TrEMBL record:
Keywords: Coiled coil. Gene3D superfamilies: P-loop containing nucleotide triphosphate hydrolases (3.40.50.300). SUPFAM superfamilies: P-loop containing nucleoside triphosphate hydrolases. It comes from the Bacteria. This is ATP-binding protein. It comes from Laceyella putida. Residues 532-560 form a coiled coil. InterPro entries: P-loop_NTPase.
Length: 841
């Protein structure tokens, strides 16, 4: 006969850590629901044998089943339940209410279990239906999970259809009346006993003396009577009350392992636990072959061993998830919800996280209008210690923005956006990003690799000047900025007036009428003839104020001979760095075009500044970091001349921001750093370790912190951001430090504060998985290949040095050496060490 099971749904049960500790009742309330599952369904035909009108086959329409499964994986026990499906969800609602009473805060999500058959060992608990277990025992079923990596405990229950009939069956089984022969013999003895007792009482009623004389005859009669049952206190309790409801129970234990020895040990351990629990019911662990589809759907196998338990016995087999038990998977109370608009995928939407509860991807939605763009480009700061996931976060930000989910070149050109990203580590980030870029987008990938010192890139501000050619003050701004960058990079704590005044003016003159670099500025200060030529050019260009400043500076330098010496002491040591000279003394390369890269395309610009002590010096690294940072800022400001609708969104990734927080050029614009980019459509993402990173700013540290607090940027708070969380608590409500601390027990999780469409959303989430796990890999790139990649926009070092140190092959009158063979130290000594200029004046 075919069994038609009651329909059910499988749900995952996730305990949620609430704000207050949940007080449980002494008895599990869910058992009351298990003992009354049939109510209402028997009237609708459940529990009956019927003939299928279509097939003519007799079938049994089963009553509802409940199944609880505990699955061990990834080091945690996960709970699942199969609940009967009814039209009005009445049973589900009742179970949810009683589960809340038993385990506290939880959430349920529909989740179909996948149960592989490979390397599976399955065991069932077999017991006599009419005998009872020891209720004083404390089963340690959870202990079994400690010794396995992947296992499951499945307890499936259904309420008995006819309780009176079942009680009668159990009583008869207890008496051994399981066959016709046994029943005939039982009732024969019962009849004989009754007859004998009646005759005995009739003949000897009241005659005690006679009764004593016939004890021998009485003992002979007793031999004909049925023997009395042995004492069974546990089983007596099972039948003691009519309120005891009986349930058919299937207890299965599944283990996945390729080690047969482990499976045998698991069976032995399980048998030991059952023996301790069995009481008067001999519980036996037997190996079985279940139908995994039935297990997944929470259905009892009628061909496998089962037990018949009542409520008190069920409690010994029913192990509910516990939020306070670290062995169980649990989640933290989500005090807020992620808006639906951030859970919708689509071209142009940028994935950056996953919802804690449902694992759904969280996106920055593509802006629909100008108002939404303002929120979209708001600056973001990611706080977190090393290993918290910041690098993975920015890799995803880069690829999501540059490709914008495009599947082909047409989509990419429409939805992709330009990205400029700094790499200050070992080059691994650039390697990871390059591997996931399809062939049709590689032509717009630009790598400025400063680890390649054999093909140095020209580093200057000439492109900024070209874009701002109508500005009368741009060269002064650049001279001021570059002077500060140079001094702060070499660690000049004195910030002397000499350099600030004299060198800055000379650098501005160099940009106006000279070569426009730091070497040229030093030459103006030293070389009388070159200084005079510069003055003439300034006069001719009608830069009279700057020419006058140079003249006044020259007069003051005559009166104070220590000025030039001070400049030399501060700057010349840095200028003896050949790599530095090879970068700054080159002519402009028009193909290095940040204006084009950030305003057309999409383009991906990866700026690689190798770590300290590697290919370049720490001072040069800091100089380049700040140089590019300020160049990008100035390019952004130049967008002011563009109409709003032509200002394309552009992402700027600044990893390890704290490395340039000691730079005055950066500090001076910090207040505007989180406000100005929005109107120019530059979206900055900064990463720092925590507030301690701002100690690099010295006495201005508090000022920089206040700038962030006042700007209220987007925030990504990962592991290690505790100090920041405490100081920004008012921006992160309703979450508190306790929420953040508890969340840190989970890997790569954090609290996010994100603006979308002019609304601020604060929520818990986990970072989206690394790019290697979620995006297609189009080619493999080794780390060494990525680090040693030649600069196509650079020039061969030999050619660069030849042009710097002497274009023509001619003999020097004093040294009789070809001009182009003179080394850098000699050249600088001539520029900075001579005193002809001072003597002549």
């Amino acid at each position: 006969m075919k069994t038609r099971y009651f329909p059910s749904n499988c749900f995952r049960i996730v305990p949620v850590q609430g704000a207050e500790k949940h007080e449980r009742s002494e008895r599990m309330q869910i058992i009351n629901q298990l003992a009354s599952m049939n109510k209402g369904f028997l009237e609708k035909g459940a529990g009956r044998k019927v003939v299928n009108p279509t097939t003519g086959e007799q079938e049994y329409r089963d009553v509802p089943h409940f199944s609880l499964k505990l699955c061990k994986r990834d080091g945690k026990i996960h709970a699942y339940t199969n609940l009967p499906k009814d039209k009005d969800h009445l049973l589900k609602t009742k179970f949810e209410q009683t589960l809340y009473q038993d385990i506290g805060e939880f959430r349920m999500e529909e989740d179909n279990l996948e149960l592989p058959e490979t390397n599976l060992y399955a065991f069932a608990v077999k017991g006599s239906h009419h005998l009872a277990i020891d209720l004083d025992g404390s089963p340690k079923i959870k202990e079994l999970f400690r010794s396995v990596d992947h296992g499951m405990y499945s307890l499936t229950v259904k309420e008995v259809v006819d309780q009176e009939e079942k009680r009668d069956q159990l009583e008869k089984a207890r008496l051994g009346l399981t066959t016709t022969k046994a029943k005939v013999w039982h009732y024969t003895k019962t009849g004989a006993k009754a007859t004998a007792k009646m005759l005995y009482d009739f003949w000897y009623d009241g005659e005690d003396e006679v009764r004593e004389k016939h004890q021998v005859a009485l003992q002979q009669i007793k031999k004909l009577l049925p023997k009395k049952d042995q004492k069974q206190p546990y089983t007596d309790r099972k039948f003691a009350s009519d309120n005891n409801k009986y349930m058919l129970v299937e207890a299965l234990f599944l283990l996945w392992t390729d080690d047969e020895g482990k499976a045998k040990q698991f069976q032995a351990d399980l048998q030991k636990l059952m023996t301790e629990l069995q009481g008067e019911n001999r519980l036996e662990v037997v190996k079985v072959k279940p139908d995994l589809s039935k297990v997944a759907k929470g259905r009892i196998h009628y061909n496998l061993p089962t037990m018949c338990l009542y409520q008190a016995e069920i409690s010994k087999f029913l192990l509910l998830p516990d939020v306070e038990d670290k062995d169980f998977y649990s989640e933290h109370l989500q005090k807020t919800r992620i808006p639906e608009v951030m859970l919708k995928p689509g071209l142009g939407a940028l994935a950056f996280a996953r919802e804690l509860y449902t694992n759904r991807v969280v996106y920055m939605p593509r802006p629909k209008n100008v108002t939404e763009i303002d929120s979209y480009v708001k600056a973001t700061i990611a706080f977190g210690e090393q290993g918290s996931g910041k690098t993975s976060y920015i890799e995803n930000q880069i690829l999501e923005t540059f490709l914008a989910g495009a599947q082909n070149e047409t989509e990419w050109r429409r939805y992709g956006r330009s990205v400029v990203a700094f790499e200050l580590a070992d080059g691994k980030m650039i390697k990871n990003v390059r591997q996931h870029i399809p062939s049709w987008a590689r032509k717009n990938v630009v790598i400025l690799n400063h680890a390649d010192t054999e093909n140095p890139l020209p580093v200057n501000f000439h492109d900024v000047i070209k874009i701002n050619k109508k500005s009368r003050s741009i060269k002064k701004q650049i001279a001021d900025t570059e002077t500060k960058i140079l001094l702060d990079s070499v660690g000049d704590d004195s910030k002397t007036v000499a350099v600030e005044r004299y060198f800055k003016a000379a650098l501005q003159a160099s940009y106006e009428v000279g070569k426009g670099n730091l070497i040229d500025a030093l030459k103006i200060l030293k070389d009388q003839q070159y200084w005079f030529q510069t003055l003439q050019k300034l006069e001719k260009k009608k830069k009279r104020n700057l020419a006058k400043a140079l003249e006044e500076n020259a007069t003051d330098m005559i009166n104070d001979p220590s000025v030039l010496k001070t400049i030399k002491n501060r700057l010349v040591p840095f200028m003896t760095d050949e790599d530095f000279i090879n970068l700054i003394a080159q002519d402009e390369n028009p193909d290095i075009d940040f204006w084009k890269w950030t305003n057309t395309g999409p383009y991906l610009v990866l700026i690689y500044l190798p770590g300290s002590g590697q290919e370049i010096s720490q001072e040069l690294r800091k100089f380049l970091f700040t140089h590019y940072f300020m160049k990008i800022w100035m390019m952004m400001l130049a967008r002011e001349r563009l109409e709003d609708n032509k200002r394309k969104e552009c992402l700027i990734i600044v990893d390890e921001l704290h490395q340039i927080l000691d730079q005055r050029a950066v500090q001076n614009l910090f207040g505007a750093l989180f406000k100005e980019p929005r109107k120019y459509r530059f979206r900055y993402v900064f990463t720092v370790h925590g507030w301690s990173s701002f100690d690099e700013a010295g006495k201005n540290a508090e000022k920089l912190k206040r700038s962030i607090k006042d700007a209220r940027p987007n925030l990504v708070l990962l592991k290690g951001g505790d100090d920041f969380f405490k100081s920004m608590a008012d921006m992160l409500a309703p979450y508190d430090v306790k929420d953040f601390t508890e969340l840190m027990n989970m890997e790569y999780c954090g609290i996010f504060r994100i603006d979308v469409a002019k609304k601020t959303h604060i929520f818990m989430a986990k970072l989206i998985e690394p790019v290697d796990m979620r995006l297609p890999m189009y080619r493999q790139v080794s780390l060494e290949e990525s680090r040693s990649m030649a600069n196509p926009l650079g020039r061969p070092r030999k050619d660069v040095e030849t042009k710097i140190y002497g274009i023509e092959e001619k003999e020097d009158e004093k040294t009789c050496q070809p001009q182009n063979e003179r080394n850098l130290e000699e050249e600088l000594a001539e520029i900075t060490g001579g005193s002809d200029f001072l003597k002549a004046n």
